[in-house]
Protein: General secretion pathway protein M
Organism: Stieleria maiorica
Amino acid sequence: MNAMTRRILVGAAIILVGLYAASSVVDTWAAAERLELDRRDLEELRQKLGEMEQVADAPRVAALELEEPNQILDRINAALQQAKLSTDLLANQTPSEPQRIGQTDFKLRRVEIKLNAATVEQIVSFCDALKDESTGSLVRDLQLFDPRQSGSRETWNSQLTLTQIIFSPKSDT
């Protein structure tokens, strides 16, 4: 083989090795991007798994005894305070008698609550503050009506239903 042919072969080999190296670098970058996406997906899956485990382990509580009307009013007043609402905004609260849930060993009591002139954020905060797993209480229904605008502040009257689940074996009745 003559020198010119060797140079051509060596040049072609260098070009091929360079192309192979460039291809390897591009493949490595693509693999690194896929790895980063996989890491994000794994983190999201771990977060969702943690949330699922929290929900699975969360107590599904029913109260063992019925809350007294004064206890309900105290909790409503505490929730108003937590939501930064004046107690004057409480138009009324009306507890009903507990009703058996089908043929189960549980009863459901509803407390109708009406609030005047609160922002949506305050109403939501109030509803969150009313929730109490230890007494089986949470807000199930919420209606907003009669919006009012005062400057940039919008307030609503609202009616909500606080419910309480009570364990009450049928043999006790």
Q: What stands out?
A: The beta strands are 90-95, 99-100, 106-118, 137-150, 153-167.
